[in-house]
Amino acid sequence: MPPLPPATHLHLAAPLGTGWPELDRALGGGVPPADLVEITSERAGQGELTLALALAQRLDLAPLLLIDLEDDLLLPTARWPHDAVRLRPRSLAEALEVTERALRCAGVGAAVACLEDAALRRAQQVRLRQAARAGQTLALLLRRSRGGERASAAPVRLRVARLACPGRRERLAVTVERARGFVGAGAAVQVEV
Predict the structure, then answer these.
(1) Per residue in 47-75, is it b (16+ CB within 10 Å) or e — as a string?
(2) Using CA atoms, how far apart are residues 80 and 72, in angstroms rounded to an integer?
(3) 3-state DSSP call for residue 48?
(4) What CATH number matches the domain at 32-157, 3.40.50.150, 3.20.20.30, 2.60.40.2700, 3.40.50.300?
């Protein structure tokens, strides 16, 4: 296997602009660098992976690791980055270990952890957040929202729903459910991917 190219790391303290002006305004400038961002949806296939991949590409974070515990994701191949790697751990414990190691790795630009139906304890989320900070890597955690707010260590939580949209581009409704330290918690915006 050839060596990984140098990763694009996040050494900035200022928020990273997503390229979607309305979302950036709601987040006070963008997503926090080198931290944990949680993306939730009411049910599978609502655009959570599409948003995560588009966000990683817009932020030019490469290479990208997709840790897929559910193993039932419909991958949007048109948006699948050429330098992305998909890993399929066998258990939640393995998924958390792989995700934490990836976040601490100098060769990873971003990690997308698809732990949608897994019940994560706050301590496990804190470890992922600490790993993201230590490795200067963005962690995108995909989870299912099950009515009511789950405990979360993520400073940003985005809820996503797919909108009907004629044509080739997808439109997603993104609600900022949590934005610690930012101005727009509760804001709802639409993004085109």
Answers:
(1) bbbbbbbbbbbebebbbbbbbbbeeebee
(2) 16
(3) helix
(4) 3.40.50.300
Asked if residues 175 and 53 have their Cβ atoms less than 8 Å apart, the reply is no
Closest CA to 61 of 27, 22, 30: 30
Q: In the chain, which ranges are E strands? A: 36-41, 64-68, 84-87, 110-114, 138-144, 156-163, 171-179, 188-192
Task: Give yes or no for a contact between 63 and 80, defined as CB atoms under 8 angstroms apart.
Answer: no
- Predicted confidence at residue 81, as pLDDT, reads 62
| Alpha-carbon gap, residue 174 to 162, rounded angstroms | 9
The model's pLDDT over 95-118, given as tens digits with 9 standing for 90+, comes to: 999 999 999 988 888 999 988 767
Closest CA to 159 of 2, 26, 68, 8: 26
The pTM (predicted TM-score) of the whole model is: 0.85
Other beta carbons less than 10 A from residue 32's beta carbon:
26
| pLDDT in the model for residue 10 | 46
At 102, list the tokens. Answer: 């990836």
Rounded to whole angstroms, how far apart are CA atoms 35 and 157?
A: 12
